[in-house]
Write a structure and sequence with these properties.
Length: about 280
Amino acid sequence: MEIQSVLLIGAGLMGRGIAESLLRSGLRIFWYDVRQEDLKKALMGIEKSFQKQIAKGRLSEEEARTCLANATLLDSLESKAEVQLVIEAVSEKLSIKESLFQTLNQICDEKTIFVSNTSSLSINTLGRMSKRPEQFMGMHFFNPVPVMPLVELIRGLKTSEETVETIKGLVAKLGKTPISAPDFPGFTVNRILVPMLNEAYFCVMEGALPEDVDQGMKLGCNFPMGPLELSDFIGLDTILSVLEIMHQGFGDSKYRPCPLLKNMVEAGMYGRKSGQGFYDYRS
């Protein structure tokens, strides 16, 4: 089966990036978020992104109009059209996802494939919640989605081969490269990346300056972005959630979230999206 229409749920940073990638690939999307203002803001962000690409000669005005015409904003899930695929990109809270999948299972055709953009939660657990584990898998994009070429594909124990091949076809259509990742907390990339970021927080808590930590990793390890800059970009609340899931899932103290990270999240210092994290973005 070739995917041509998608119901996308979530208009946060990841949702917006996924939407832009789907539209650029000629797909029809029906887009929903519980916060309608976020949905409209995300679409405006895509329009601005397209204008920048037009200015650079990477996209024509006509192509941009065609892409945007393929996006339909929904004010309720019940108003969605028939789709072949649902992509979930909501908060990394199991209770939120469970409630969403219960609703989706009632309103979607039994043949519709569900995928989750979760970065750490169990695909087997989410698949069971969806009531269609054979047609469920993880499709983990990386931020910024339109730029990053990687997609982690995570199959559950009951995911069918047909589902996997269909999603692989979609990844190819998006012009991205898939890797298979095991269904363990953090999958592959975050399991390696997030503990490194956490160690950078311990360095700051113990007296290192954020700019020195970032400069050290950029010059000493040839990183394009320092771990604290990257953390502010991803969102400290998101990273804390991933660490907590990994700590609980593996029961290993090496995944224990740094106390400084917890304090910053409790203070509402999430990084770029809140205006303040390890660096100040309010000016």
